[in-house]
């Protein structure tokens, strides 16, 4: 099931000359970047040399990918976390597999500030020697190896310089807006950051063509999944599509697949396909700009859908414009302070992370090694890492309370075809009337399921009746909270969801987290797509609230069907019976649906469509 997609391009478009002349109004900028916007602005009337430069560089991206394996290995930078030079198959998708669908060529843009630089200055490299993802110098291909790569370095540098020139005009407009609307905003801050940065990076992306006998990579929801940019601004060219054979590369006038392109999720949860004309540039807001503008400008989730036509590649160039390591991002911290955790560097320019804001992370120096010691900022880093572990399995789930039932639905992923699917589960019977879904580390999940069963059994033995679901949730949360106080036990990397139809509370749904917090809700979601699912559930609840206290009326089958539909839409993929785990709590019982029972609900959904 695919999300509802609006086909029109509703991005705000302005001319470069209007930006230069400061004629872009605050209203136009707010329409492009504020909390109700698409978070993108298209700039037209770019200097004429841009059209030819874009075509040259994006064409050369395909030839760059055709260099010998030995030559490409020389362009790799393991010490820079493969964020300098060539990178292909080095990062993992959310499903744990290596990403073999695309190759990237990274270029540090410090030469814009000083033509002699190919990375940060020697002083910066010495001062911030831990930050190899930023301080590693550019690696350039041997242009003599392929005739088609002649002048590659000159071409891409010229294109980057032109794009940053335009970026400065967009930054100037943002500065004017912020100066007029924010107290104590430093005039010209963003323009200065973009102009003088020694850490901004360009990413030349080549989406490999696939052959007819291969499966369509665009069917893989992890291929280029929904994400936020974390720079101040991201400058984008439109994509160039090429038909590739072993002996030739042909530039296509347009995408052969009308569904291929950039999709942005708007504030209503709908997906808008944004078309960037070939002679224009687009600029997206990132989390850093959101921070700098005190949330006046908002970063937006977006994803790229490649072409589903065989033998066609998709090439594009993006520039992530951000502060230098020594630049102040607020009154007390510089950019390096925000990036102190080295792992953050690895994913800063990649699409597979979601929540990192480059202006919100403070130094963890030393404190991330201790479970029970607060950092000076009042944070327990090991507990925060446990929260991140919840999303590592890339499984999203949701729970919903119905009129006479409670339902939990989760993705089910089998990591290896040789495994018995029956042995891979995150859904557990705890007592005859209580079910539990664990999201996160499977080993921790099984351990906590055994502990929950033991607690429920001990309660029944002691008091003579089944342990109420609220008491069980509270007990499991208390144990999790205890692990944050004492160093003898690490926090568990799972979030627990409990469902039951309680004699006193009726249909119930409880959730606990690794910090020991628990609560009851009408609906919940956990996992990488939690925000998307939660937004859909909130919209559904608002529609029903006038005449009902539950989101879905009807028996458990209706609740299950709604939950599956909501999850499928959030994941932007069609779910099959083997992709799901479903648990249903009714009065006095809890059952896990078999694959055939799940298939019955899927058939019912299809018939309704």
Secondary structure: elements and pairs:
Elements: E1 5-6, E2 12-15, H1 16-20, H2 26-33, E3 40-44, H3 49-64, H4 69-74, E4 85-88, E5 102-108, H5 122-127, H6 132-135, H7 152-181, H8 189-196, E6 201-207, E7 233-236, E8 240-244, E9 249-251, E10 261-265, E11 271-274, E12 281-285, H9 287-292, E13 302-305, E14 312-321, H10 335-338, H11 342-347, H12 381-389, E15 397-401, E16 406-411, E17 427-431, E18 434-440, H13 442-463, H14 469-482, E19 494-502, E20 506-512, E21 518-520, E22 523-526, H15 530-544, H16 556-571, E23 580-586, E24 589-592, H17 595-608
Q: What does it look like?
A:
The chain has 609 residues and is α+β, with helices and mostly antiparallel strands. The chain has two domains: 12-212 and 221-342, Jelly Rolls; 385-607, Glutamine Phosphoribosylpyrophosphate, subunit 1, domain 1 (4-Layer Sandwich). Helix content is 31%, strand content 21%. It has 17 helices and 24 strands. Strands 2, 3, 4, 5, 6, 7, 8, 9, 12 and 14 form a ten-stranded mixed sheet that branches. Strands 22-15-16-23-24 form a five-stranded antiparallel sheet, with helices on one face. α15 packs across α16 and α16 packs across α17 (595-608). The protein starts with a strand and ends with a helix. Residues 1-9 and 338-367 have low confidence and may be disordered. Keywords: Cytoplasm, Nucleus, Proteasome.
């Amino acid at each position: 099931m695919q999300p509802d997609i609006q086909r029109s391009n509703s991005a705000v478009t302005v001319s470069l000359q209007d930006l230069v002349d400061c004629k872009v109004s605050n209203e136009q900028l707010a329409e492009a970047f504020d909390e109700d916007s698409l978070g993108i602005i298209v700039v037209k009337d770019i200097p004429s040399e841009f059209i030819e430069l874009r075509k040259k560089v994006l064409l050369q991206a395909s030839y760059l990918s055709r260099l010998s394996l030995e030559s490409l290995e020389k362009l790799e930078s393991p010490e820079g976390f493969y964020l300098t030079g060539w990178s292909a198959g080095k990062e993992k998708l959310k499903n744990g597999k290596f990403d073999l669908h695309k190759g990237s060529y990274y270029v540090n843009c410090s030469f814009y500030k000083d033509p002699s630089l190919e990375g940060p200055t020697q002083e910066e490299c010495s001062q911030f020697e831990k930050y190899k993802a930023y301080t590693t110098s550019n690696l350039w291909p041997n242009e003599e190896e392929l005739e088609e790569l002649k002048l590659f370095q000159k071409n891409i540098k010229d294109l980057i310089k032109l794009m940053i020139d335009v970026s400065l005009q967009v930054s100037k407009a943002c500065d004017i807006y912020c100066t007029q609307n924010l107290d104590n905003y430093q005039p010209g801050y963003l323009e200065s950051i973009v102009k003088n940065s020694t850490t901004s990076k360009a990413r030349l992306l080549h989406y490999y063509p696939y052959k007819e006998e291969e499966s369509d990579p665009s069917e893989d929801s992890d291929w280029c999944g929904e994400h936020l940019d974390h720079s101040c601004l991201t400058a984008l060219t439109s994509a160039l599509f090429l038909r590739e054979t072993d002996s030739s590369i042909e530039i296509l006038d347009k995408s052969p697949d009308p569904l291929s392109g950039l999709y942005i999720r708007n504030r209503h949860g709908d997906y808008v396909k944004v078309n960037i004309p070939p002679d224009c540039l687009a600029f997206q807001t990132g989390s850093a700009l959101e921070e700098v503008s005190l949330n006046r400008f908002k970063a937006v989730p977006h994803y790229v859908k490649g072409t589903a036509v065989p033998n066609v590649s998709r090439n594009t160039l993006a520039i992530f414009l951000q502060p230098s390591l020594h630049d102040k991002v607020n009154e007390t911290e510089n950019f390096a302070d925000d990036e102190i955790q080295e792992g953050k560097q690895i994913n800063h320019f990649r699409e597979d992370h979601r929540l990192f804001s480059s202006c919100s992370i403070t130094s963890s120096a030393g404190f991330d090694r201790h479970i029970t010691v607060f950092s000076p900022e009042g944070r327990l880093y090991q507990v925060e890492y446990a929260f991140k572990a919840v999303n590592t399995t890339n499984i999203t789930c949701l729970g919903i309370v119905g009129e006479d039932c409670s339902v939990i639905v989760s993705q089910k992923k089998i990591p290896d075809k040789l495994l018995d699917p029956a042995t891979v589960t995150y859904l557990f019977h705890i007592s005859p009337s209580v079910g539990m879904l664990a999201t996160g580390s499977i080993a921790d999940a099984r351990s906590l399921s055994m502990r929950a069963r033991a607690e429920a059994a001990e309660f029944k033995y002691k008091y003579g009746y089944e342990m109420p679901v609220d008491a069980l949730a509270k007990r499991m949360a208390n144990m999790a909270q205890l692990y944050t106080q004492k160093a003898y036990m690490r926090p568990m990397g799972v979030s627990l969801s409990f469902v039951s139809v309680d004699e006193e509370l009726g249909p119930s749904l409880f959730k606990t987290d690794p910090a020991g917090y628990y609560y009851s809700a009408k609906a919940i979601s956990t996992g990488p797509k939690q925000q998307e699912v939660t937004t859909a559930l909130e919209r559904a609840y608002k529609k029903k609230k006038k005449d009902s206290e539950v989101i879905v009326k009807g028996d458990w089958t209706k609740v299950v069907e709604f939950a599956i539909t909501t999850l499928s839409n959030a994941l932007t993929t069609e779910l099959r019976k083997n992709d799901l785990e479903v648990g249903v709590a009714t009065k006095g019982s809890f059952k896990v649906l078999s694959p055939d029972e799940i298939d019955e609900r899927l058939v019912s959904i299809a018939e309704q469509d």
